[in-house]
């Protein structure tokens, strides 16, 4: 399908900061593995460096792998930042919109997400859990379903808002796009969804509150980010914009409250593990989307939600945690996680 194509960036259009060039920075040392983690020059320990030279290269490689494995345990998504086949994409050149991707392939994606990953107490052929039956689930199971439903609703709303109204013509070579009220009503009205459509829209707001809470919880960390790309003016504007956003988020009184989730006993820890594994499965299923542009935005929003869950439930952004040089490792977010979280809440 012609509208499924994703336009990748040419090498000359990729900011130097995204390529890993930090030679223009004079006030900070940057972690080459994670350029968003600033390093104080005094963090370098000469004695520790000397001791490390006695460790064999094989053991050092193993330590790096162990460290990466430990970090990955906090992730709710499978991250592929080091994929050699990955390309840089300008999201402004590839807007989220209806591409014509539909039918059995698209339905199979969401059917797998709901049926294979959402927690259920009874077997049914209906992938959606009726809102009247959600009370049969525990809090954590309800949160998972509402998060997936809200993610689905977000994607559907944007497809209706940017719908292909007419194919390419001489006057509209790229097609005509715009609001499709009929399509929106078909996907969300009570009459066409057996009364569930309005609940799905409420689940969209639920995800919005959840991601707002994640931004608020990680605010101190995000305010210290450099957001370095190599364009000094844009980097400065980005830092100011993020601080303005976080200021608004802090003043919003009704964030999602995660404190009562996964609390108590060993059973809660088991449920937390299952919750995480189920969401990772969702992120993997998004790789099976047959339309590249749909996959791009589906994976971006899924990773944004997964990043929010990581912030909320890893324990490393809790109020008792301190952002100090010795604890920077605890607060590590990859660039793609920050980008996906901000874009997801923007959706």
From TrEMBL:
Its cofactor is FAD. SUPFAM superfamilies: ERO1-like. It is found in: Endoplasmic reticulum membrane. InterPro entries: Ero1, ERO1-like_sf. Keywords: Disulfide bond, Electron transport, Endoplasmic reticulum, FAD, Flavoprotein, Glycoprotein, Membrane, Oxidoreductase, Redox-active center, Signal, Transport. It is a peripheral membrane protein. Disulfide bonds join 41-77, 291-294. It comes from the Eukaryota. Belongs to the EROs family. May function both as a monomer and a homodimer. This is Ero1-like protein. It comes from Tenebrio molitor. The lineage of its organism: Eukaryota, Metazoa, Ecdysozoa, Arthropoda, Hexapoda.
């Amino acid at each position: 399908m012609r509208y499924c194509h994703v336009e990748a960036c040419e090498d000359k259009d990729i900011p130097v900061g995204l390529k890993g060039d930090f030679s223009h920075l004079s006030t900070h040392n940057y972690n080459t593995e994670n350029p968003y983690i600033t390093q104080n020059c005094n963090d370098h320990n000469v004695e520790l460096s000397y001791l490390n030279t006695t460790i064999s290269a094989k053991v050092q490689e193993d330590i790096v792998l162990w460290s990466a494995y430990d970090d990955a345990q906090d992730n709710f998504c499978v991250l592929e930042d080091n994929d050699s086949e990955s390309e840089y994409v300008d999201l402004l050149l590839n807007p989220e919109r209806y591409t014509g991707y539909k039918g059995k392939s698209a339905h199979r994606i969401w059917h797998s997400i709901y049926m294979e990953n959402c927690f259920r107490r009874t077997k049914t052929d209906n992938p959606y859990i009726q809102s009247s039956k959600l009370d049969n689930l525990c809090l954590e199971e309800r949160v998972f379903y509402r998060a997936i439903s809200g993610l689905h609703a977000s994607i559907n709303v944007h497809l209706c808002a940017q719908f292909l109204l007419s194919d390419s013509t001489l006057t509209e070579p790229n097609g005509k796009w715009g609001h499709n009220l009929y399509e929106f009503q078909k996907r969300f009205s009570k009459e066409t969804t057996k009364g569930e459509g309005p609940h799905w829209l409420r689940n969209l707001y639920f995800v919005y509150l959840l991601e707002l809470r994640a931004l608020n919880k990680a605010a101190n960390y995000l305010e210290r980010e450099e957001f370095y790309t190599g364009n000094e003016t844009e980097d400065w504007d980005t830092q100011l914009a993020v601080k303005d956003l976080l200021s608004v988020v802090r003043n919003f009184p009704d964030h999602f409250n995660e404190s009562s989730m996964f609390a108590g006993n060993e059973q809660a820890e088991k449920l937390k593990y299952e919750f995480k594994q189920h969401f990772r499965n969702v992120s993997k299923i998004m790789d099976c989307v047959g339309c590249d542009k749909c996959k791009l935005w589906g994976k971006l929003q899924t990773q944004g939600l997964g990043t929010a869950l990581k912030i909320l439930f890893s324990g490393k952004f809790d109020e008792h945690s301190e952002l100090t040089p010795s604890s920077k490792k605890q607060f590590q977010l990859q660039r793609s996680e920050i980008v996906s979280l901000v874009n997801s809440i923007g959706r």
